[in-house]
Structures are given as C-alpha cells and as structure tokens.
Amino acid sequence: MEKRVCEMDLTTAMEEAKLACSYFFNNRFEEARALMRPWAHKSMYHGLGYGTFMYLQAIMTFDPKDIEIAIEALKKSVEVCNRYRRKNTLGESLGKMVKKVDYNSFTKEEIHAELCYAECLLLRAVLTFMEDETLISFLKGGMKIRACYQSYKECWYILEGRDWSNDTDKMHFESGVRMGVGAFNLMISQLPQKILKLLEFVGFSGNRLLGLTELERGFYLEGSLRRVLCALILLGYHLIATYVLGTSEGDLEMAQVILDDHLKLYPNGAWFLFFAARLEYVKGNFDLAIAKYKFSLHSQDEWQQFHHLCYWELMWCCIMSAQFKDAENYADKLLQESKWSKATYAYQKACCMCMRMDELSPAEKQELSDIMRSIPGLKQRIAGKSLPVEKFAVKKSARFFAQGESLTLSALELIYAWNGFKILAKKYENVEKIFVIIEREMRKLESIKVDNRSEYFWDDYLLAHLVKGSCLAYMNSPLQAEECFKFIVNNEKKIKEDTYLVPNALLELGLILLRANDLEQSRIILEHAKNNYKSYSLESRLHFRIHATLNKIHSIQKGTSQSEGLTPLDAYPSISRSPSPCVSKASTATSNGTGTHLSEQQSVANNL
Where are the stretches annotated Disordered (predicted)? Predict the structure, then answer.
C-alpha cells in the first residue's frame, strides 16, 4: 500500500483553503489560485480548491482549453483524495453488511478525503458533459455522479456515527456534508418527471425541502469552510433557478438574510454584489437593479468573464423595462466578447432591433439583416447536442426572412421564453408598459386584410395572445387572460410553425385554475399539455415548469408544505431566520449524541 505522506497538515490545508475562499470572494482571484496551486498535487484541500477555481473559469468561458485545464486539475485532485481515502479490506467490506461501521477508527485525513473526493467527482462529471460529444461521455458522467452520490452518503453516516472530539473539525466536515446532501436533493427534485423516473430507477431521489433545509443548516454554521458555498447555492436557487425553471417564488427573505451577512464579509465582492442586484431585479426594481449590476461589474477587472454575466443581466433589465436600444447594446457586447452562445446573443440583439423597426436607419436595417443571416453559422454543439435556445434562434432567423424581414413582438417572446412575466408582474407599471406595446401590435395585425395576410399570420397573432394573456393574468384580469389562452388552443390548427404556443397556453390555463384553487382541473390540463404535445421549441423548459406546478398541486392536495409531497421532514426543528451560533448547538442536543436527530438521520438517508 502506498504510504500517504504530505508535508501540508490537514488543519493548515483547511485554513489555507478558507483563506483562498476569502481572496476569491473579495475579487482577488489570481491570489486565490496562487495560494492553492503549489500544493494541489499533494494536499486534498489545495487540489479541490484549485480545481474548483478552474471549474468556475471553465463554466464561465465555455472555452475548450479552459475546460481541458479544469478537467485535468480535478482529475489530479481526485487522485490526491484517493491516496487518503479509507482502503477497506475484503473482510471489512463484507463486515459492513452485517455490523455497524466504526467511524471512530477513521483518521481525520480519511474522512475529509471522502468529502473532497465527492466534491471533485461532482465537478468532474459536469465538465465531462461539457467536453465530449458522445453518449459514452454521458454514461461516464453518470457513473461519476453515482460514485459521488454514494460518497456523500458515506459522509453523512460518518457525520452521524463518529464521536467528535473537536468542534472545529466537525463544523468544517458538517458544512461540506450538508452542502453536498442539500445540493443533490435540490438539483434532482427540480428535474422533469421522465428524468426523475430514470434516476429513481438507478437509486437517486430528491426532496426539495430537505435540500433547502440542509443548505440553510450549512449556511448557519458560522466560520465553516463551505458556508459561503451553501450561501451561493441558496442564492442561485432562490434568485435564479426558481424564476427560470419553475412557477413558484424564491424565498426573498432568506436571500436578503444571506446577502446582509455576506456583504459585511465581502463588501466589494463581485459575486454578492451581483446577487444583490439580482434580488432587486426579481422584485421588479429594474432601475435599481441596473445600478447595482453596474456596481458589481466595476468592482473588479481581473475576471472579464464575470463582466459578461453582468452584461446578460443588464440586457434583461433593459428588455423588461422596454429600453430596447440599451438592451441591444448589451447584447452586442456579449456577441463581441463572450464565447458561450453567439447565436443566442446575435438573436437577442436582432430581437431588440426588431422592436425598434420604425426607428431604424437603412444602415441599421442592413445590419439587422446581416445579423439574422449569420445566426445559423453561429450555432454550436455542446455535449453532442445543440442548445435549445440556439435551435429556437435559428428557426426564428429563417422566419425573419420568410415573412419579409420582420418578426412580431420578438423581444416579448423572449421574455416569455425566459419566464419573465412573473418578474414583470411584481410592479403593475412594468407589466402595463409591456401590455401597451402588445395592444399596439395586435391592432396592426388585425388591420391587415385577410387577402394580404402572410402564411405566418396566425402564428404571430396567437403569439400576441400568449403574451397579452400573460400580462392580463398578472393585472387582476384572470377571465380575460383565460380568453386569450383558450383562443390559442381553439385555433391550434391554424398554426404553421409555432406549435409551442398551444402547450404553453395550456400551462397558463393550468396556472389560472391553480390560483383559483381548482386543483384537479388544473392538474388535468397540465397532464394533457405534458403528455400530448411533443417536439416543439423549448420543450424541456415547459416540462420544468409543468413539473414544478404539478409538484405544487400535489403538495397542496396532500396537505404538506412546499415540498414535493414527501414527508420525512416532519421531525425537523424549525430554522431560525437570523444567523446564530446557537443554531448548531440546538441541533446537537439529541439523544444519540452525534449531532443531529435520529429522525433527521433517517430522513436524509431515505433521500440519499
């Protein structure tokens, strides 16, 4: 057996990893990497830290070279972790089946190696999907996720079954376990039903409320190594994922608690300034959000890819507030500088120009035509597949030329595709501004004589009804909104190309019924939309939204809270809204003396 020797002791390694996190979230990105790099091939925490920083750079740039560097860094980190992980003999492996494992016999290095190994595998799996274009890469990635999943499960039992003599050791380990268990449950619970069934078949399951609870507990472990990562995941979920993929609201109160806490630690940190701006955005305070995004943008110059993230958000603030010229400028910045999806950026710029068609000069109209013509050539393939948003952009660019170099309400169609009407609805004046634009366009369409209508007239007219109905639903006019959506469904056969309009109209009808507390009829309509419409634009996005709504209906019918109807959390104590060291102490006052309730242990085990 290889002798495991490292000149860097574990305590020092964790302290340096914590310092590197502090550097990173204070915009000292290169210093963070430089602190981790020299020991990355010997120390598990240095390897994990360096690999994580390379991973973040790779997902921000989508540059194949950055992805390759990150994969290599994480591969070496996994090798380091494996050198320190517990090596069970055949007898020990067989003994696990018949008797309880003595986790007190594990060294500190062995338990932390297991935790770091799980984190590395998760990041490595995501990069595998990004790097390769074959089915084999997906199978390899899936195997890594399963190994990671099993490793987190082992870490949970270590946390429960070990007698902890050092509170600091336990705190750092516990924060990592709660982050991993929480992130897994949260991620899996958001997937559409057809994917969930496959994952559950191979041993995965997810409970959203359990995931959020574990992440909050990790966040309340003040001073712990992975506390900041728990905070970021929670902010990402409450301020981004719920609005892009779901139909529910994020917990803005919890987001504010996290931001108040971390902006004291990192007052000029680009990441938390970004989320502070995002909080204003989802509240519908677009002007304030723009100011805060610019503050985040100008807080650092070292990481240019982060600027692109801010440009993206600034573009959406401008689209949502009908500042289409400014939105066009931000889309152009992304098109010129970012490598993520040039087809998407080009189409977004073109959509904003289409909204100003009456104002465009001849030169600008030629530019618009050139941009639309370039979009098919900009489409890329990631993990063997084209991005759905790029396929949508290519289809719409062809449509632009097919109907005389024009598109109807193209930027508002983007708002709908990105689930933006829920955010518009936060302020009546915001949704009213968009409603006026829609009404004006509908009058233009209705003024076209029947003989002069293009073959896409009904596609355009029904799109106008979809976005009009979405406005009315949030303007306290549910009956008028319902009329718009039913009009789309009743005229389905007149659609030439935009078949996505009908299942989306059915979703909106289901949401109106849900708000009226007609749960069963809502469920029937949503199931119909899910099961009877296939191969339309942005199908997976609609399935995410339908899945989230059906979960909500199920939980209401079962009398549970906002979980997916799963009930292993009944024994959980309530979580305080204010960060306090007392939280972790309260949770340790249990009968088994291991740090959490036995019922909680069983709940998490069931969901692992």
Answer: 576-608
**What per-residue string of b and e applies to 125-138 under the rule 16 or more CB within 10 Å gives b?**
bbbbbbbbeeeebb
- Residues 186 and 542: beta-carbon distance below 8 Å: no
Is residue 322 a part of any domain in this protein?
Answer: no
What does the alpha-carbon distance between residue 356 and residue 445 come to, in Å, rounded to a whole number? 17
pLDDT category of residue 557 using cuts at 50, 70 and 90: confident
Q: What is the CATH number of the domain that holds 393?
A: 1.25.40
The alpha carbons of the chain give a radius of gyration, in whole angstroms, of 26
* Integer Cα distance of 509 and 518 in angstroms: 11
Write the pLDDT tens digit of every residue in 473-498.
999 999 999 999 999 999 999 999 99
- 176, 119 contact by CB (below 8 A): yes
Beta-bridge partner residues of 385: 382
Could you report the per-residue pLDDT of 225-254, keeping only the tens digit for each? 999 999 999 999 999 989 987 777 899 999
Residue 156's SS3 state is helix
Provide the b/e sequence for 278-290 (b: ≥16 CB within 10 Å). Answer: bbbbbebbbebbb
Q: How does 200-210 read in b/e, with b if 16+ C-beta sit within 10 Å? A: eeeebbbbbbb
pTM of the model: 0.86
Nearest alpha carbon to residue 81 among 35, 36, 117, 108: 117
Residue 295, domain extent: 268-305
What span, in angstroms and rounded, lies between the C-alpha atoms of 258 and 566?
27
Q: Tell me 237's DSSP state.
A: I
